[in-house]
């Protein structure tokens, strides 16, 4: 049953990993058990605090964003993007009480197999949906800066809504394996405790070599796929888009002045996502490599023991950060104190009036707009 650490999603695998730490030679078994218990208690307490904080701030903050962008503001391409990002985060944080209960009960899952599957699926649905919405936002900003006239004529709320639907379908496909493989079973240490874990071979057989290898292979495949499609590829696209945007803005200061506020907000959201999710993916890879290695490293095991719960908590926090970023970067701090939440969020999400918008309002044709933009870049 020690192979369970391989079958567990890194979200909860650190609890099982604790059991694999070997006692140092200079410690008695009692001293080591006490140290292990204290470490487990500290990590559990930290996780509970973070989960509760993310739940309260995430549900309230994202709920307000959904209310404002969905019902109080005029529909624009920007509001469609941020509405979908808020829905993804709200959905995830709404399920956090399940994780809080699971952790508080010593990793006993009382909610049944279906909720075990659904809870894990929602977690990764949030991750994939969020990162690909950020990809689309970055691409949208890049097109708006590089080809402003084309963007002005072709960007629409309807197209943005269709793209958002496509993102949700893609995220659902990528997160579906977690629904398939998630399972519940009695803990190896206490039959009265039911764990929620990944059972990649739908079997309790941890002895047969072929079964163990298949389990390890599927675990490796899912970890690498999640790292590539949920992190490396999306952020490569995002970085490329922003490199192009920065290059163009340096050449055109007029365009830079019009794009400043939204550019900073989007850049902050993307940076927060990167900082919150990068450690999670890194520790997941370290854990996978260590358990696939012929020589198991106690040092790496200790690193993941501490790193996985911290990085997981950090990833959870990302779902409540975006509303705070919208508020604190939407306008100057003094104005935020005086204005209502609605006005602050409207300031954060309102489409800027680009040079092309100004020309359109003046009744100038597309041909004239192209000439004007060309002149502006000279």
TrEMBL record:
InterPro entries: Formyl_rcpt-rel (IPR000826), GPCR_Rhodpsn (IPR000276), GPCR_Rhodpsn_7TM (IPR017452). GO terms for molecular function: complement receptor activity; G protein-coupled receptor activity. One of its GO terms (biological process) is phospholipase C-activating G protein-coupled receptor signaling pathway. Residues 61-326 form the G-protein coupled receptors family 1 profile domain. The keyword Repeat does not apply. GO terms for cellular component: plasma membrane. The chain crosses the membrane at residues 48-68, 80-104, 124-150, 162-181, 224-245, 265-286, 306-329. Signal peptide: none annotated. Residues 354-366 have a biased composition (Polar residues). It is found in: Membrane. Coiled coil: none annotated. Residues 354-378 are annotated as: Disordered. The keyword Transmembrane applies. Pfam families: 7tm_1. Residues 367-378 have a biased composition (Basic and acidic residues). Its main location: membrane. It comes from the Eukaryota. Keywords: Chemotaxis, Disulfide bond, G-protein coupled receptor, Membrane, Receptor, Transducer, Transmembrane, Transmembrane helix. It is a multi-pass membrane protein. Belongs to the G-protein coupled receptor 1 family. Belongs to the chemokine-like receptor (CMKLR) family. This is Chemokine receptor-like 1. It comes from Osmerus mordax (Rainbow smelt).
């Amino acid at each position: 049953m020690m192979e369970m650490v391989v079958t567990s999603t890194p979200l909860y695998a650190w609890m099982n990993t604790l059991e694999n730490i070997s006692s140092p030679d200079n410690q008695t078994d009692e001293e080591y058990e006490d140290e292990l218990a204290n470490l487990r208690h500290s990590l559990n307490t930290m996780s509970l605090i973070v989960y509760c904080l993310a739940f309260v701030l995430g549900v309230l903050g994202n709920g307000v964003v959904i209310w404002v962008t969905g019902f109080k503001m005029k529909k624009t391409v920007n509001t469609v993007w941020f509405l979908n990002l808020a829905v993804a985060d709200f959905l995830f944080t709404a399920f956090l009480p399940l994780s809080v209960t699971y952790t508080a009960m010593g990793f006993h899952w009382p909610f049944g197999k279906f909720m075990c599957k659904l809870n894990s699926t929602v977690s990764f649905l949030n991750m994939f949906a969020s990162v690909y919405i950020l990809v689309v936002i970055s691409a949208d900003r890049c097109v708006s800066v590089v080809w402003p006239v084309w963007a002005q004529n072709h960007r629409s709320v309807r197209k943005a809504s269709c793209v958002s639907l496509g993102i949700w379908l893609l995220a659902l496909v990528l997160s579906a394996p977690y629904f398939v493989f998630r399972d519940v079973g009695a803990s190896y240490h206490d039959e009265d405790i039911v764990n929620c874990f990944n059972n990649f071979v739908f079997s309790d057989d941890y002895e047969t070599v072929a079964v163990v290898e298949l389990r390890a292979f599927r675990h490796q495949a899912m970890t690498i796929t999640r790292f590539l499609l949920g992190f490396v590829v999306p952020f490569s696209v995002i970085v490329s888009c922003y490199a192009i945007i920065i290059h163009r803005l340096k050449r055109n200061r007029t365009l830079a002045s019009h794009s400043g506020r939204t550019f900073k907000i989007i850049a902050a959201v993307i940076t927060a996502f990167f900082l919150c999710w990068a450690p999670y993916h890194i520790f997941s890879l370290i854990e996978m490599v260590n358990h696939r290695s012929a020589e198991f490293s106690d040092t790496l095991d200790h690193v993941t023991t501490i790193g996985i719960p911290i990085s997981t908590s950090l990833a959870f926090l990302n779902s409540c950060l975006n509303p705070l970023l919208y508020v604190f970067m939407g306008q100057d701090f003094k104005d935020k104190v005086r204005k209502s939440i609605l006005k602050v969020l409207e300031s954060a999400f309102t489409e800027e009036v680009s040079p092309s918008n100004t020309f359109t309002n003046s009744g100038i044709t597309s041909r004239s707009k192209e000439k004007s933009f060309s002149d502006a870049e000279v």
